[in-house]
Write a structure and sequence with these properties.
Length: 210
């Protein structure tokens, strides 16, 4: 659909698609905040909307390759649901890294030297997300809080995410294409509106101090 931009400007279509997806994400972010504000929408609605937009952005940019954006986290979610919290973090990391490495090797074999954008970029972001989540679950369900660092305590997850929560986190449209990686706890607080409450409380404390 946007080939005319490539023909007119000479910019490769993969780069055109990337810029368009980033502009769409930037445009929808303030709408998401206003139309689906936590005070107006249930968390499930915010999860579903973010997931839908993320899936559409991924498919628009990469077509059939976007299957891997679901394949990698699906394999890791199966591990999270079936393995013991005592060792799931290592298994998730191994599964994610093997999956990602296979995609990298495939590109080296069949598309060596290419400068086009491909699915490995978003997959690296997804790999960071699912592995950090796995370690947070491990910390939250198995570790003694006294032995955790301050950051580990803060990001520890004590409940395994539902499939909607998990995939909406993976496909978070604001950061899907190029990151940065967002920790699951921060994402969940954003969805539930707790981050707004924290900001309001910190502002009140600052004003009272002044």
């Amino acid at each position: 659909f946007f080939l005319w931009i490539t023909e007119y400007s000479g910019i490769p279509i993969d780069q055109v698609n990337f810029v368009i997806t980033e502009l769409v994400a930037l445009s929808l972010a303030p709408l998401f905040r206003s139309l689906f504000h936590p005070s107006k929408s249930q968390p499930e609605v915010r999860h579903a909307f973010g997931l839908l937009v993320g899936v559409c952005i991924g498919y628009f940019a990469f077509g059939r390759q976007s299957f891997h954006l679901a394949g990698l986290p699906a394999a890791c979610y199966l591990v999270i649901r079936t393995q013991s919290p005592h060792n799931l973090q290592r298994t998730v990391l191994a599964v994610a890294m093997v999956y990602l490495s296979c995609i990298h090797v495939h590109r080296q074999v069949y598309d060596y030297g290419s400068l086009t954008l491909d699915i490995t970029g978003p997959l690296m972001v997804v790999t960071q997300k699912v592995s950090s989540l796995a370690y947070s679950i491990h910390d939250g369900l198995t570790c003694d809080e006294e032995k955790l660092t301050k950051n580990q305590k803060y990001y520890a997850i004590k409940k395994i995410p539902s499939i909607l929560e998990y995939f909406s986190y993976v496909f978070q449209f604001q950061v899907l294409m190029a990151g940065p990686t967002v920790f699951y706890k921060d994402y969940l607080e954003f969805i539930n509106g707790q981050n707004f409450l924290k900001h309001a409380q910190s502002t009140d404390v600052s004003n009272n101090t002044d």
